[in-house]
Amino acid sequence: MQNHPYMWNYLPLLMQIVVVAGMACGMVIMSWFIGRHRNIKEKLEAYECGIPVEGDARGRFSVRFYMVAMLFILFDVEAVFMMPWAVIYRELPHITGSRLFGFWEMAVYLGFVVIGVFYVWKKGILDWAADKADL
Questions:
Q1: CA-CA to 19 of 20 to 30 Å: which in 35, 70, 104, 123?
Q2: With contact defined as beta carbons under 8 Å apart, do 92 and 101 qualify?
């Protein structure tokens, strides 16, 4: 039986946090003292694969770029929802009590996904050639 307070069990964790914080601060301080500080024009420019910077970084993007990004996230999340269903598909009759309930549940879900893809396709969001005609 231990005779020390419960909080003493957290002492190793506290020691580790102190050591890590000390090492991080020590590395930053040592790099400040050891490193050279010459702020020249070339050093302060943004580096982009060796290509010289042209224009402003705040250029305008087409709205289609953001739409495609949102659609990618949407369909990626749908794939995440399908994964657990696929993993437990054989156990669904034991869970739901019905053999086809899980199948029809996913069929309805995929029906909504197909309707969404058809809507996006008909709206022309994925048609990048139309974006070139506007220029």
A1: 35
A2: yes
